Amino acid sequence: MSAGSVSIRRARRDDVPAIVAMLADDHLGRARERVEDPLPAVYYDAFARVERDSNLTLVVAEIEGRVVGCLQLAVLSGISSQGGMRGLLEDVRVATDCRSRGIGERLVQWAIAEAKARGCNLVELLTHQTRVDAQRFYKRLGFTASHVGMTVRF
After folding, report:
1. Global pTM value
2. Measuring CA to CA, which of 41, 72, 120, 153 is 20 to 30 A from 143?
3. Which residues of the chain carry a pLDDT beneath 70?
């Protein structure tokens, strides 16, 4: 399995279990995701909302029919930056046994190109402070630390 054989396509409903499994595959995800069989309906409901929203694009990386990565791109309009649009990357994941093969880089490069094509003037993302490997990965791809993220959970 090399990154050269990776295809990136829009996610389908039947990809949801693989996506949730990747989202749950670390200490943070295990605490907030529910990997059960059958998968809770909330995930399929969320997928349907994402699929209907033209400003959201959920894609997967696939190798030989297996979903091995995912990423969501949100295109956000705003008034700041002279009314410029921005791309927000979320839920960037690669299956544990497929990491360090260029798959995450291909996903992020796809998202950057898509954001540019859709008129965005920047791409940004948030990553948890404990994900130092992810931070190193994003810096290698040209991202710079620029904000302090804060959260309120309900």
Report:
1. 0.91
2. 153
3. 1-4
